[in-house]
Amino acid sequence: MQDSVIFVTQYDIWAESFKRWAEKDMSLLTIVTIATVIVLLVAAVVLYEILRSNKVRRELQELAWKKFDYSAKRLKLSSISLAILKEVADMADLQDPDAMLKSPQVLEHALEKYYKRKRVESIPAERLDEIRNLRKTLGFLPMSREMAYTSTRQFDNGCVVQITEDGIIINKGTCHVIGSDELNWYITCPDIPVRVGTILHLNMTRPGDAEYAFSTQVLRELKGELVLSHATQLNRTQQRNWVRIDVNIPVEVTQISNDGTGDIFFGKIIDLSGGGCGIALPIKLRSGTFLKLNFELPGHGLVENLQVKVTRVAGPYNNDASKTIHSVAFSGDVNSIQEQIIQYVFEKQRQDSQAKNS
Fold it and tell me: Which mean pLDDT values do the consecutive 10-residue runs of the chain (358 residues) have?
């Protein structure tokens, strides 16, 4: 019978040595020394990770500011406007300052933090005027119907607001917005008496958008006008009708079957809005079919696995019988992608408008 061969690995040797070492009686000094070494090693690893994370954060912030500078240069913003925006971004701790130039919501939230920290009433009037003009330069005044209001600072002159009591509109409390600045906004006096200091509950319907309900305080009365405090808590109570723009974007479409997979085919997005899009496809699908879309949103990155539902099947695209137009609506949790698309729609609207005016 052949003798058995015993293989002794380096691990076996190390394990036996560790066992003998562990069985020895260690002094208190030895235990303290080992614990100290372990603590120092852990502290060194934590410090390294903190330094590495800070370095990555700084690099990302530098890239974000380079992106901001590039966009600001394209918009031909003045040095004063740039200085204001950079101060606002710093005080609002914005990680992506470029978003202020593309989204009125982002700018509004950043300005609100800026006004609270600086105390808006203590900011010089000239600077407030610059901020007001900056809104207009960015195309945020007047506000596009594609974008929801987030503050009364965005209201247009001529908007109609109605005073409510317990949610019921008072007929004699209908007023027109006649002005707004960074400090206050102004409406015509209603036919009912209103005292200074009163908290008004208002309702406003914006055609093509939604109904807004909010509260504001009467600060003073001037020559038939009520001077009101700005409100940033606006409750939208009705889904808006999305504004659509014409586009020409290649798209990869996956038909979703019961097991989550399906056929893949390619088409073209022909119009786009914050609630859905129109697609020309080389196939005719049924209403109610669920799809996943993958496409490149120009200047705004990839849109991946966007789930949509076919709501309507129209006729051929450009009289081409091989391509059928499908209207689809976004479905599922699409909030982050939807905001990305809304920003693109708004920016393209602004660019098209500037091109027409020039």
Answer: 55 68 63 82 85 76 84 89 93 88 90 94 94 91 81 87 76 85 94 90 76 92 92 77 82 83 88 88 90 91 90 84 89 73 78 67
pTM of the model: 0.56
Structural domains in the chain, CATH included, are 156-236 (2.30.110.10), 245-357 (2.40.10.220)
CA dihedral (32, 35, 37, 43) positive or negative: negative
Number of C-beta neighbours around residue 137 at 10 A: 16
Residue 332 CB: number of other CB atoms within 10 A?
A: 13
The CA distance from 131 to 137, in Å, is 10
Contact between residue 88 and residue 72 where contact means Cβ atoms under 8 Å apart: no
Helix (H) or strand (E) holding 66: helix 28-75
Buried b (16+ CB within 10 A) or exposed e, 270-292: bbbbbbbbbbbbeeebeeebbbb
Q: Per 3-state DSSP, what percentage of the chain is helix, strand, and coil (rounded to 5)?
A: 40, 30, 30
Backbone φ and ψ of 6, nearest 5°: -100, 125
